[in-house]
Amino acid sequence: MTRLNALDPNEATGRSKELFEGIKNKLGMVPNMMRTMGNSSAVLEGYLNLSDSLSKSSLGSKTGELIALTVAETNACNYCLSAHSFIGEKLANIDTTSLAEARHGKNNDEKVEAALTFAKTLVNKAGKVSDEDVQAIKAAGYSDGAVGEIVAHVALNILTNYFNNTANTDIDFPAVKAAEF
Fold first, then answer.
1. Per-residue DSSP letters for 60-106?
2. pTM over 0.85
3. CATH topology for 60-167?
């Protein structure tokens, strides 16, 4: 059972209504996470702005989706695992093997795997990475800017993971569950 209510986009008012209209125009629907975030237009708008900015990052959408899966699995967020598995396959055209492996920080491309490993390390160490961790990601070919983008992707996904785990958001994508810890 959900713990925070998802707003009906047809009954929303003010800034949340405006944001919902933009989301619906772009996606054709307003996903439950965004409907729930809409209880605070500041939360929804902050999420949308960071997400939009990161969609233009040097990492690309595929790596961004794979990072999202690594972080969601680490945080046991079933909503985000479901959403990013669907988005990764249907919109980013990522094969299902790569999607499954990303949940565990793995990828057949060494550079991408280094990004996933670093993302998982960030989550597991609560951001307190070591000099060696940063040296390893840079040695994999990532610039200082790209390292910052990985950190930002992790932060965005921690926001959505924590939000959905708190709200117990109804999953409106084909359901994917985190491995048992």
1. HHHHHHHHHHHHHHHTT-HHHHHHHHHHHHHTS---HHHHHHHTTT-
2. yes
3. AhpD-like (1.20.1290)
